[in-house]
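Aim 2 progress. For Stage 0 sporulation protein A homolog, the working sequence is reproduced below.
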Amino acid sequence: MIKIAICDDDKNIVEDIRKYIESYKGASFEISLFHSGEALIENKERFNLIFLDIEMNGVDGIEAARKIREYDKFVKIIYVTSYTDYLNLAFSVHAFGYLNKPISEKEIHSQLSEVISYFKEEEIEEKLEFITTDGVVRLAPKEIYYFEYIDRRVVIKTKDCSYSIKGKITEIARDMKNYDFIMPHQSFTVNLFYVKSIKGYDIFMMDGSLIPLSQKKSTEFRDEFNIFLEKRILS
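Predicted structure tokens for this construct:
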């Protein structure tokens, strides 16, 4: 059962999306309807997928997504919008996709197929093995926020735990590059998926961490991050 929220202050659009979801064959859905960003935020329920309008009275879709990301980093968010400047939006809230109004049944079905495909991939996601001071740990790349070199050891930072391993941060960065990890500083390599924003020479991570961005690596890191965002939008 895939839990889906639809949030738009236009009740006709909410009903259209609901109707198109229900006509999709091959999966079961539990659908919740919201007509304001405030109602969605206050609900606090965790969903697998949210169809979210950008322009709403009161709390808009951008702010609603930011609030949701504070307690749910993994929900897929598909924006329903008339905007075309997607990159800046994706930069702050890691949107899964975008639908331009007016919305068609075909577009909804296409997005649902893609989301379901991602869910299947996540279920069988590759696990990487690390020899830590606490023993062998197996982690999927998406479980890791960043690696930090401290006192001749590398610390693996995940959502709930930190693990200490031996090794060189440069070698780890090389090994993790294929999983969208990039070095912004000689002591860090970060998962681009969890970068919330970049301001000056500070990288704000989704878990609240603040990672330094060296002047030397600034241009390369920003370019890699923009490429990462563009690939997510186009995929």
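Residues 105-123 form the longest helix (19 residues). This observation will guide construct design in the next reporting period.
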